[in-house]
Amino acid sequence: MEKLIEKIEKGAMPAHDEIVQLLALQGENALLLHRAARRVKRGILGDKVFLRGLIEFSNVCRCDCLYCGIRKSNAKVARYTLSDAEILEEARFAIDHGYGAVVLQSGERDDDDFVKKVAKIVSGIKKISADVGITLSCGEETFDTYRLWRDAGAERYLLRIETANETLFQQIHDAKSIYERRRQALDDLRKANFTVGSGVMIGIPGQTLDDLAADLEFFRDQDLDMIGMGPFLAHGDTPLGKRFPDTEEIKQKRLLLALNMIAVTRLMLRDVNIAAATSLQAISPVDGRQRGILAGANVIMPNLGEAAQKRNYRLYDNKPGIDENAEKAWRELENSLREIGENIAYRESGTPLHYLKRQ
Ligand code: SAH
Q1: How many Å apart are CA 262 and CA 258, to the nearest integer?
Q2: What is the pLDDT of residues 155-187, one digit of tens each?
Q3: Nearest by Cα to 263 from 254, 276, 250, 278
Q4: For the whole model, what pTM was predicted?
Q5: Whose CA is closest to atom 25 on ligand 1?
């Protein structure tokens, strides 16, 4: 195993069955894998971590994904949409605190009001700071909408494929979500000149190591610039969460698997941005994101919202940090990164090196 890790650390592309072997690692062997990935991260991207302030600006959604807490059919959710002024205020907080970029995330809507609102917010944020990076994470839209939002000033877009296994994709979505359309949307984002990010959920009921290895090959073949992925977590008010409730043992297994996925992604894709997702922190509140960085991630997305907003934007159970104080959480994060020898890259927008090299 050490030989295999060493070979891949030096830059050899692993074969499918080798990826599967790496993803299955546990204990000391898993740590060897994570350390190799961290060395590659530090060698290529240095000892810094980028911060993106996450603004969950609306939980109104037209989709009915079987795993997601804010799915349309979940009548228990109090729906909200922040006003433009509230969103700009959260963005201003991020900019004032030296965050190099913000992520605007929401449920999915395709009506005119929504499309125009997003364009308006993006240009509003760029008026506060022309240098701050803006990432959108608002789901599947038409090419024209992507174009409009790109022209308004957003540079990056995150749209997870969720799983590259088409059969599994259809099983966890309602009939209106179509795998081919998701792939088309990723192509459209590229055509609209976005820096494109995607990712998957790890540990979806029914998902195999073979599927996850294929996900990593999908990332590579799509030539993605950013990867955001985290463990699947049950939400008790969703069909998937009801059928497959989490146990502590399952969650710990998924956490390790997610860290292995981050590490192998770093070893295979080298110069992309990889986020240590919030769902890592949901399983391990004290050090989940820190462990993501130790396994090769280089981006953290602290939530900028107020408690009430965070509570209503609950994709899975036990969302972390709902009641935390933003300033205090930010100090703690800074310390936890310093402890492992990483520095927050304040005021750097953090365009993925992979994207810069392609230009
Ligand atoms: N509507 C937008 C963004 C919001 S959802 C979109 O679809 O892109 C953001 C991500 O949260 C999803 O892509 C999904 O991977 C993740 N997510 C949703 N429900 C989850 C769950 N139960 N466990 C883990 N991740 C989940």
Answers
A1: 6
A2: 999 999 999 999 999 999 999 999 999 999 999
A3: 276
A4: 0.97
A5: 232
From the CB of 139, is ligand 1 less than 6 Å away? yes
∠ at Cα 150 (149, 156), nearest 5°? 105
**Residue 28: C-alpha distances to residues 24, 260, 318, 339 (Å):** 12, 12, 29, 21
- Taking only the tens place, the pLDDT of each residue in 87-124 is 999 999 999 999 999 999 999 999 999 999 999 999 99
- Residues in Cβ contact with 118 at an 8 Å cutoff, skipping those fewer than 6 apart: 104, 136, 138, 149, 152
Distance CA 286, CA 265 (A): 24
Q: What would you report as the CA-atom Rg of the chain, rounded to the nearest whole angstrom? A: 19
**Does 59 contact ligand 1 (Cβ within 6 A)?**
no
* Å from CA of 69 to ligand 1 middle: 9
Residue with the two structure tokens 């898993």:
30
The CA distance from 55 to 57, in Å, is 6
Report d(CA 8, CA 294) in Å as an integer.
18
